[in-house]
Each structure stands twice: as C-alpha cells, then as structure tokens.
Specification:
Blueprint lengths: L6 H19 L6 H8 L3 H7 L3 H21 L7 H9 L7 H17 L3 H26 L5 H21 L6 H13 L11
Helix pairs in contact: 1-2, 1-4, 2-3, 4-7, 5-9, 6-7, 6-8, 7-8, 8-9
C-alpha cells in the first residue's frame, strides 16, 4: 500500500527542496519547475499546493523562522538572566551544518525581500521579533542600569553581523569565535557593582 502523505508534510518537503535549490544554485533558480524536479514531483503536483513561485518562496522563508522558533521553545527558560540569554541567543547563530544552511537560505531570502513585497513582509516580521527578543534579554540582564533601547539595537546588530560573517567568511567566523563574541558582548550588559565610598 503506498504511503499517504498529507499536504502539510508535502509542503514541508517542497520547502526543503526549495532550500536545497537555493543553497546549490541560488534563489534565482528556485523556480516552480526546478523545485518540483528537486522534490521528485511534477509541476502540477507542486502547483496544487503552491499556485505561484512567490507563494512557495514565502512558505519556504517562513519555514526557516518556524524551525528556529521550535528550537527556542524547547529550551529551558530558567536560570540567571545572563546565562539564559546566552543559551537562547546562541541558537540564532549558525554554529552547525543545519543552522549554517538556514542562515545561508535566510540571507538569500532577505536580499530578495528588498525587491519582493511578499518576502519583505516576512522579513520585517522576523526583524521585529528578533529586535523584541534582544530588547527582552537586555532588559533582563541589565535592568534599569542600561539604556535598554540602545543596547537592544547593539545586540541585534551583533547577532546580524555574526550571521553575515559566518555566511561570507566561515573559515574565520568559526563556531567557537561566534560564541566567544556573543559571550563577550553579553558580559558588557551585566551591571557592575559600584565601588563603595568611604
């Protein structure tokens, strides 16, 4: 009896096929025909689930976000703020093959989002969510002893910069180096005890 695949599973299979095409050939080659071929499906089967290339790409872009969100939801949120923030934020860095591929695909999508309104909407939602997460961790670590808005912007810039460095210079921006830079930055947010006056 043939295996029955529900539409959700098939859509996920197609999103992953789109990622493979993007990683191998570039986003400009992620056409309906090429993604269908990569997934081992006919064009008609793909068009039954995604009527346009734009719809497929938006879904594939959202799948990157959802994978990251699932990893974050599985983490233990307890502990001191500095350690907990690092445990969560390190999940956003491309430290292993899976996250490196997600990062490369995400950067391809965000470049395309500059000229594609549908992808831009997804990119902007993700930007806002990451900025909100940065603000949350800065507030929890630094409390009222830091400029929360400025430091949230700085942390956001550090995370974005590390992601770009990892994609463009992986031999230099190694996993150890990325983690060390993030850890050093988070240390700057920890309030320092003021020296006692006599």
């Amino acid at each position: 009896m043939p295996k029955i695949i529900d539409s959700g599973e098939r859509r996920q299979h197609l999103a992953e096929a789109a990622w493979r095409v993007i990683l191998r050939d570039g986003l400009e080659h992620a056409s309906v025909r090429n993604v269908a071929r990569e997934a081992g499906l006919s064009n008609g089967s793909l068009r039954h689930l995604f009527s346009t290339q734009a719809e497929l790409l938006v879904f594939a872009m959202n799948q990157v976000v959802e994978r990251i969100e699932r990893r974050l939801e599985a983490l233990d949120p307890t502990g001191d703020p500095r350690t907990t923030a690092e445990r969560f934020l390190v999940e956003l860095l491309p430290l292993d093959k899976e996250r490196q591929e997600e990062n490369a695909v995400w950067l391809a999508f965000t470049a395309r989002a500059l000229v594609d309104p549908e992808l831009r909407e997804c990119a902007e939602r993700s930007y806002d969510a990451l900025r909100a997460g940065c603000r949350r961790w800065v507030a929890e670590i630094g409390g009222d002893q830091v400029d929360v808005e400025r430091e949230a912007d700085r942390l956001h810039a550090v995370l974005d910069g590390l992601a770009v460095h990892a994609a463009t210079r992986p031999a230099v921006a190694t996993a150890d180096r990325l983690q060390a830079i993030l850890a050093t930055h988070l240390d700057t947010l920890v309030p320092q005890e003021k020296p006692r006056t006599r």
